[in-house]
């Protein structure tokens, strides 16, 4: 690692909590004895269920906890980490994005997604958290997860109001497109995608093309949730990036 910091800041995905990174942190700590890792619960999730924030506010919260170091974000957490790199470049020394996007460019598509996110938020309020989590994990995007790797029990730490607020405030439909701002990112960037996650593989290629010094790694045998489906491959890619 070219910087002096071994700090790694992990940002989880929607319906997850910071505990989704426990295995990643333990494995990295075995390979690097000076790793200093932090994986906070993002606003609307886990112990931060009562906190509210849009993506920029989530980025502020993440930077305030994380400080200077390598930021690793998955899906929603990847979008938060991307915002953090733009808002707090002094904190983000390296950036790892897993299954992330820089936003929906088409105004109509973004508006439709915002409507869909709001409707899903209303649905969460009407349903119990366990019932919604089962519905969420039934999404084809997560077909590669097993009962063990899905970490369902940890997701049940969330509340209906917290998840609904996250969707309404920090869902993809609310995100301003950041494609034109990728060139502002000066730190090294690693993008990880699963080989069967064709949508985010295409988005990952675009992100790498938009930043200086970007690197794309396509993980065989994985879908969207690379860090849960193929944790060893994810750790190997991040370890190589840190080395």
Characterize the main sheet.
6 strands, parallel
Extended strand count: 6
Class derived from helix and strand content: alpha/beta
- For this structure, what is the CATH class? Alpha Beta
Query: What is the overall pLDDT average?
Result: 96
Strand-and-helix sequence, N→C? Answer: EHEHEHEHHHHEHEHH
Which word captures the global form? globular
- According to CATH, what is the topology? Rossmann fold
The CATH architecture is: 3-Layer(aba) Sandwich
SS element count, helices: 10
Quick take:
This protein is α/β, with parallel strands linked by helices and about 240 residues long.
Can you tell me about this structure?
By secondary structure, this protein is of the alpha/beta class. It has ten helices and six strands; from the N terminus they run E-H-E-H-E-H-E-H-H-H-H-E-H-E-H-H. The chain has helices at residues 22-31, 55-66, 76-87, 107-126, 129-137, 152-155, 160-170, 198-210, 226-229, 231-242; strands at 7-11, 36-38, 69-74, 92-98, 189-194, 214-219. The protein has a six-stranded parallel beta sheet with strand order 2-1-3-4-5-6, sandwiched between helices. The longest helix has 20 residues, at 107-126. The chain is globular. The relative contact order is 0.18. The mean pLDDT is 96.
């Amino acid at each position: 690692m070219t910087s002096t910091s071994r700090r790694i800041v992990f940002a989880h995905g929607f319906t997850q909590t910071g505990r989704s990174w426990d295995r990643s942190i333990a494995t990295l700590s075995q390979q690097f004895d000076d790793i200093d890792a932090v994986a906070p619960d993002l606003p609307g999730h886990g112990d931060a269920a009562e906190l509210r924030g849009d993506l920029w506010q989530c980025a502020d919260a993440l930077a305030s906890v994380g400080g200077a170091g390598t930021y690793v974000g998955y899906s929603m957490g990847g979008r938060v980490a991307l915002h953090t790199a733009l808002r707090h470049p002094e904190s983000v020394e390296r950036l790892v994005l897993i299954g992330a996007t820089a936003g929906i460019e088409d105004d109509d598509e973004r508006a439709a997604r915002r409507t869909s996110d709001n409707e899903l938020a209303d649905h969460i309020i009407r349903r119990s958290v366990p019932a919604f989590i089962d519905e969420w994990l039934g999404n084809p995007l997560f077909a590669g997860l097993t009962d063990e790797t899905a970490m369902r029990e940890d997701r049940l730490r969330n509340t209906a109001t917290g998840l609904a607020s996250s969707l309404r405030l920090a869902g993809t439909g609310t995100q301003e497109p950041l494609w034109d701002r990728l060139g502002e990112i000066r730190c090294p960037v690693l993008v990880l995608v699963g080989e069967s996650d064709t949508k985010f593989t295409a988005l990952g290629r675009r992100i790498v093309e938009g930043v200086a010094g970007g690197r794309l790694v396509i993980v065989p045998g994985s879908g969207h949730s690379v860090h849960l489906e193929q944790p060893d491959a994810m750790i190997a890619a991040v370890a190589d990036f840190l080395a």
